[in-house]
Design goal:
With 321 residues, the protein is mostly helical. Among the domains are: 113 residues, Methane Monooxygenase Hydroxylase, Chain G, domain 1; 57 residues, Serine Threonine Protein Phosphatase 5, Tetratricopeptide repeat; 49 residues, no CATH class. It contains 15 helices and no strands. Helix 6 runs antiparallel to helix 7, helix 9 runs antiparallel to helix 10 and helix 11 packs parallel to helix 13. The longest helix has 40 residues. It is rod-shaped, with a radius of gyration of 37 Å. The N terminus is likely disordered.
Length: 321
Amino acid sequence: MKILKSLFVTAFFASLSFGYLNAQDINEAIELYNGGVKAFQESQYSKAIADVEKALQIASAAQDEQAPTVKTNCEKLIPQLYFSQGKQQIIDKQYAEGIITLDKAKTLAEKYNEADVTASVNDLLPQAYTMKGSDEAAANKPAEAIASFNKALEYDKANSTLYLRLGLAQEQAKDEAGAIASFDKIVAMEGAKPGDVNNAKKKLSVTYLKRAVASQRTKKWADVVADAEKAASYDDKNMQTQRLIGTAASELKKWDVAIAAYETVVAAEPNAKDKSTNAYRLATAYEGKGNKAKACEYYKQIVADPNYKAFAEAKVKTLCQ
């Protein structure tokens, strides 16, 4: 009996000690939690995270009746703390650190079922990558900018402005095919911003026009026509493009294409400085097609021009009788 009594007394005092320690632990957890909230309010995010995570650790192990409430409060607050810290890091342009912190916030938000924080992270991450990419492009780091814009597009696939920035970065990186694909994406995108569509079309028109001019230098006339027609499909007001189409089509003896191009130029710029050249091009194209009447009409227009006088007079004399 003495032995049993001794054991009973020992167990009794151990129970009292255990209860005292639990009370002490939960009070520490509450103090840490409250300290973390205060630090959060003062934007001391690292301290807030450390305090609240320590509070969570203690509350998770404690047997006190207050422990579940403290634990729940910690779990609700921790994802928000990481989100706020990550947001501040992005504002401070600490992009690498901020993105890691935001990813941590999202992981914890999903773990603790904090859907609002998950949604906030998903909204902020594409902005973070966009800001990062814009700074990289401004610093002449197009490869890094392209990677950042592509990451942003993983979260926001229907953002025409993002595709525009990606295309500009690809241009900066001399990736013509990539830039064309990005700008084309904007033009085909339902709901794209009108300003983005206009800028994409301008970029595409200029790109194809440059290609056409380069092909003209090497007399690759079929390529000139193909690229100039592409350029015109994005900007039908650029008469340089129409002139290129007309010239290249004439070299290829595609008279209908040449005539259509130069008729467009004449209609748009009836008093252009090179109006005699335009008339000459139309005259030769109509002659090539076999339409003598129209050819003569345009040859007669350039008889008075000293640059074409002799040639035009000869044509009028032989062709238009």
